[in-house]
Amino acid sequence: MKTLALVSISVLTIGLAAPAAAQSVPPVESAPPTQSASDAESAVQDIVVTAQRREERLQDVPIAVSAVTADTLGKTGVRDTIDLRLAVPALYASNGNGYLFVRLRGVGSLAGGPGLENAIASYVDGVYVGSQGGGIFSFGNIERIEVLKGPQGTLFGRNATGGLIQVITREPSHTTSGDLSVGYANYNSLSTRGYLTGGLSDTVAADFSFYANSQGDGWGKNLFNGHDAFRVYHDYGVRSKIVFEPSSSDKFTLSADYANSKNSMIGAAPLEGTKPRFGGGATFTLSNRYDLNTNHDPLINAEGGGGSLRWERDLGFARFSSTSAYRAYKFRRQFDLDLTPTPFFWFSNMVQKDRQFSQELQLSSNKNSGPLSWVAGAFYYGASGRYDPLVQNFESAAPPPAQGMRSWKSTTDTTSFAGYAQGTYAITSDTKLTLGGRYTTEKRTLDGTQDFTATLTGLTTREAAVSGRSQRFNKFTYRVSLDHHFTKDVLGYASINTGFKSGGFNTTTLVASAFGYNPFAPETLTAYEVGLKTQFLDHRLTFNVAGFLYDYKNIQISTFLNGPIVIINGPSARLKGIDAEFNLRATKAFRINASAQILSGKYNSAFPTCLIGTPLGGVPLTTGNCQGNDLPVTAKLTTTLAPEYRITLAGEGELSLNANWYHSSGWFTDSDNVIRQPAFDEFGASARWTSPNERYNLELWGKNLSNARSFNAQTEIQTGDHYTSYAAPRTYGVRAGIKF
Q: What is the distance between the alpha carbons of residues 629 and 607, in angstroms, rounded to a whole number?
């Protein structure tokens, strides 16, 4: 809480932003279509999104967007960013050593470290979250989540090669209200979350939310010492907004948040049926896929927070906004990289510190601006990420002792400026043309040292030092879109969008090598897309579909180099696919949501530096050509299905029965296409009772009731071992809540 207090003082002092993640975005409003009252009860409610940096009906936006409301999140069991895939099949999210790894339509990154960012940008209330560790958080006061598919190189821009995730939190209200819930689940898990809002004066409203989770028992055990594995010791966070509206033209939103977590969710083991190099030649087997057998326990301690100040002013002809935000994170991790109880090498102390400041100025036309609507702005982003330090230990079970210890202290600084503009012109009342562009100039700087301390002598040798090594990257990206309303409820569109993800430095490869410390280059993506957004049956049925073709070049690919993960530039790839969403409100009582994605992604140029392993493992990786192989974590078919049935209990409230099904056809885990995640199905269900006055609720829920076996992370390390961890097992519990 000390961090949060300092954040708040800093915000008030400089009038800009203390560590933060939230600016004000108006809440979703339901805009019922013209129909009878009885029809409206079973119609699909309109969702307002901000995909084009202004409020628009989802069905009127010529972009492939999945908008998931708080109600839908609850029914599908989505409690944090990792669970989002259950609601958006085009999205894959996992926890990789405490980092949020995301892939959207086959585009994304599986590497983490200082200065490394996802190709799927994360935003909270319009504020960019650069640190991958900061992207993993539990959902508290969520209004909705928007997932924009495809490169967002104009209005958002910041490294959004494959798309972005925009989390929208609740807006404070002048009416005093709130809610509180508590829950208990298997593995002796406890959870609580709460929200309170109200008016402080006629012009000021505020809110406060919190969540806290703990897991008393791990999903597995470390067989070496009997300690719990895959256990959340604590996970809590707080968030607050204050909205000040001194006049009808001005609005100020001050936000702050803080989160803290300690867990062993970064554990890993060799893939069953393989022979780890340091496992004594035996085939690895475990009775429980969440068990480990390592002489060092995995552990992560993470904390972070931030704040923002947003000023919005109505100028009459346009609307002006200024958003200032600062965020800071600290992670401390340890894990045994040889994956066995045999002493060899492990990372005993990985301390990563990230901080960022962003400033955005934006001017957008008002709704009554005639046939042309437009938005223009400028964006600044400054960030620093460092290992302080990263320590790799080499051990030995018997004399002579192992070599010693290697440590890195390295920093990557980022300074980025961008200017952007986008305009939409109504050629006719039904046809619109959109043109947009963004120019980005970015400078990356690397400083660092690499030292080795010998066990026998205690002497420390400086192996490498880099000071002030920098590289600048400049890029223009654009968007062209044509959309047409064939009828009031049928919108068709075609678009070309480009994306750019900046190059950078690897902070653990300071010694010149085949990969070197020379900066890896930017990756680019050009997307061609056509889509239809439709509503039928008096708005009871919504069906949206999009087809896309991606030209993905100079792909930034993660690989292991002497232990740490690094980024190298790979070949180009071609991705093509179709995704669709279906929402039917058949009656007032019965509703069903479904979605699907069909995807193909392959490397279509030479890839001679591809690292190649063997199915049995334990043999150091070699290099070869992976041209023609599937991209990693790219399932050919992913589907979701979520029916809901509501039963009115005469005088006793309402019972809502929900089920959800997630299917994946499976994928290859690495570029060499050696190990494959088999097809799997996850099932979830819940039964929720709500009192007649909607004040009380009680819910029984279950996730992954099929106990599906799916990888959370799986990759090959340089020794040839298959580094593996699994997504959550079957969980179930009860939750009770109250609204006031």
A: 10
Q: Tokens 């995730």 correspond to what residue?
A: 165
- DSSP classification of residue 400: S
CA atoms within 13 A on the CB side of 704: 16
Asked if 117 and 499 count as a contact pair (C-beta separation under 8 A), the reply is: no
- 278, two tokens: 């340091």
Sign of torsion over alpha carbons 710, 712, 718, 722: negative
Tokens 């792909």 belong to residue: 555
Catalogue the E-assigned strands of 78-215.
91-96, 99-104, 107-108, 120-124, 127-129, 142-149, 163-169, 177-185, 189-199, 204-215
Do residues 429 and 487 lie in contact, with contact meaning Cβ atoms separated by under 8 Å?
no
When the pLDDT of each residue in the chain is averaged and rounded to a whole number, the result is 88
For 565-610, the pLDDT digits (tens) are 788 888 999 999 999 999 999 999 999 999 999 999 999 999 998 9
Cβ contact 40:46 at 8 Å: no
Percent of the chain topping pLDDT 70: 92
**Could you tell me the CA-to-CA distances from 282 to 270, 285, 615, 725 in Å, in that order?**
11, 9, 15, 20
pLDDT 10s digits, 666-683:
999 999 999 999 999 999
pLDDT at residue 133 in the model:
77
Q: Which helix (H) or strand (E) holds 375?
A: strand 372-394
Burial class (CB in 10 A: 0-12, 13-18, 19+), 316: exposed
| DSSP H or E stretch at residue 3 | helix 2-14
Q: Are 738 and 709 in contact (CB under 8 A)?
A: no
Strand order in the sheet with 91-96: 91-96, 99-104, 107-108
pLDDT at 508 exceeding the cut of 90: no
* Cα distance between residue 294 and residue 339, in whole Å: 6
Tell me the two tokens of residue 455.
């066990």
Residues whose CB falls within 8 Å of the CB of residue 255, separated by 6 or more in sequence, listed in order = 20, 21, 22, 23, 24, 125, 239, 240, 241, 242, 307, 308, 309, 310
Question: For residue 705, what are the contacts with CB-CB under 8 A and spacing of at least 6?
Answer: 683, 684, 685, 730, 732
Kindly give, in sequence order, each residue whose CB lies less than 8 Å from that of residue 510, ignoring residues fewer than 6 positions away: 408, 410, 448, 449, 450, 463, 464, 465, 466, 517
Choose among 106, 79, 83: nearest CA to 95.
83
- Read off the pLDDT of each residue in 554-561 and give the average, rounded to a whole number: 83
Least Cα distance to 466 among 405, 508, 415, 504 occurs for 508
Residue 585: φ, ψ to 5°: -110, 85
Domain 2-739 has CATH 2.130.10.10: no
Alpha carbon dihedral 319, 324, 330, 335, in 10-degree steps, equals 30
Prediction pTM value: 0.90
Contacting residues for 140 by C-beta, under 8 A, at least 6 apart: 169, 193, 195, 209, 210, 211, 237, 239
Model confidence at 627, in pLDDT bands (50, 70, 90)? very high
**Nearest Cα to 23, choosing from 324, 304, 354, 380?**
324
The HSE-up count of residue 406 (CA atoms within 13 Å, CB side) is: 18
Tallying the residues shown for the chain, one arrives at 740
Q: Phi and psi for 219 in degrees, rounded to 5?
A: -70, -25
Which residues have a Cβ under 8 Å from the Cβ of 611 and sit 6 or more positions away? 559, 560, 621, 622, 623, 670, 671, 672, 716, 718
Q: Which element (helix H / strand E) includes 355?
A: strand 345-365
Please tell me the distance from the alpha carbon of residue 629 to that of residue 359, in angstroms, as a whole number.
41
**DSSP output for 4-72:** HHHHHHHHHHHSS-SB------PPP-----SS-HHHHHHSPPP-EE-TTSS-EEGGG-SS-EEEEEHHH
**Residue 497 near residue 546 (C-beta atoms within 8 A):** no
Task: Report whether 98 contacts 334 (CB < 8 A).
Answer: no
CB 532 within 8 Å of CB 557: no
Give yes or no for a contact between 529 and 494, defined as CB atoms under 8 angstroms apart.
Answer: yes
Domain ranges of the chain: 2-739
